[in-house]
Amino acid sequence: MTLLKKLDLASRLKENPLLKPGDVRSSSAKMKVECLLNPGVFQFDNKIWLLLRVAERPEQREGMISFPLYDENGKIKILNFDKSDPNLDFTDPRVIQYKGQDYLTTLSHLRLVCSDDGINFYEPENYTPIFGSNKLEAYGIEDCRVVQIGDTYHLTYTMVSHLGVGVGLIQTKDWKYFDRKGMIFPPHNKDCAIFSEKINGKYYALHRPSSPQLGGNYIWLAESPDLLHWGNHHCLASTRQDKWDSARVGSGAAPIRTEKGWLEIYHGANKENRYCLGALLLDLNDPSKVIARSDEPIMESTADYELTGFFGNVIFTNGHWVEGDIMHVYYGASDEVICRADFSIEEILNSLLRQIL
Ligand code: MAN
Fold first, then answer.
1. How many CB atoms are closer than 10 A to CB 345?
2. 153: Cβ below 6 Å to ligand 1?
């Protein structure tokens, strides 16, 4: 009898993809929604909510590349380039380079959708999107993690501009009024997830600084007295040569407290930009201690919608909610559509603890 290798631990919903670019309105008549991706997830008002990243650009004309950004007055400006221009590098569908300057091919904002069952989502009335609003967000805002501490939701998201990529913090209690706290981790940094509770009197966060020469794209831990000032940084997970996470790693949503430790779902990519998910287990009392880390991905692209799309072979998560042993993970597939896969927390923990026995 031939045993089929179980490819990953994820149970994908048969309803996937749950949301596609055509399912939400564009922010203006001039824009087209190109991708929906990487949602933050939270519970509010007895519903499950996603804070979607909506990536837009104008309808593309033959032979041209057109994309939006905010000018110095916060107004949308469209840049147009002829594809035959030798100064233009557009080999990556996500970024272009022109005369040494990097731009994004789409402009992202954050949009709220909600649901009673975690499967069928709609845009509620009277909740406004969150747009980039200052020069550090001139190329948009992306990939927001949401964590609730007491009655306050903390949003950590990527701020993008020609000055670099950093982490912004926004706080809200009602999802109507947003208190923007500015940049909490300066460039180059992204993938920041705040823990849902203090440990020994301090707040903790995972973050991902990048270092082009020494070091790389690694997951770090920081602590803070007030969520605004962060210090005592430790590197928790670096990339691993010749493995599925050889080029970059970055945290997903807030770690989940389990009896065995803090469980963190992270993404790892190799040199070919194939993004998979893995898990880290951190000590409950001292999260700078890594107890275990997945040797193999717990989820990798296998479904059609994960293999092809705006940027194929990508599974990227920054949001989940937990119901008993089940972790409902929402993820961007191929940087284009929103999907969900469910996992047994116990099964992930067993896969990690088996490795260290
Ligand atoms: C980066 C970010 C993510 C994106 C992945 C895969 O990590 O831009 O938003 O999903 O790349 O393209």
1. 17
2. no
CA-CA distance, 152 to 175, in Å (whole number)?
A: 10
Residue 36 confidence (pLDDT)? 98
DSSP SS3 for 355:
helix
Contacts of 81 (CB under 8 A, 6+ apart): 64, 65, 66, 88, 90, 96, 98
**From the CB of 143, is ligand 1 less than 6 Å away?**
yes
State which ligand 1 atom lies nearest to the alpha carbon of 248: 7
pLDDT value for 82: 95
Nearest to 11 by CA among 240, 260, 345: 345
pLDDT at 7 (0 to 100): 67
Supply 291's token pair. 């107890």
Q: Is 335 in the pocket of ligand 1 (CB under 6 A)?
A: yes
Task: Give the pTM.
Answer: 0.96
What would the DSSP string read from start to end of 241-284?
Answer: TTSTTSSEEEE-SSPEEETTEEEEEEEEE-TT--EEEEEEEE-S
Using 50 as the pLDDT threshold, list the residues of the chain that sit under it: 1, 4
pLDDT at position 356 is 83
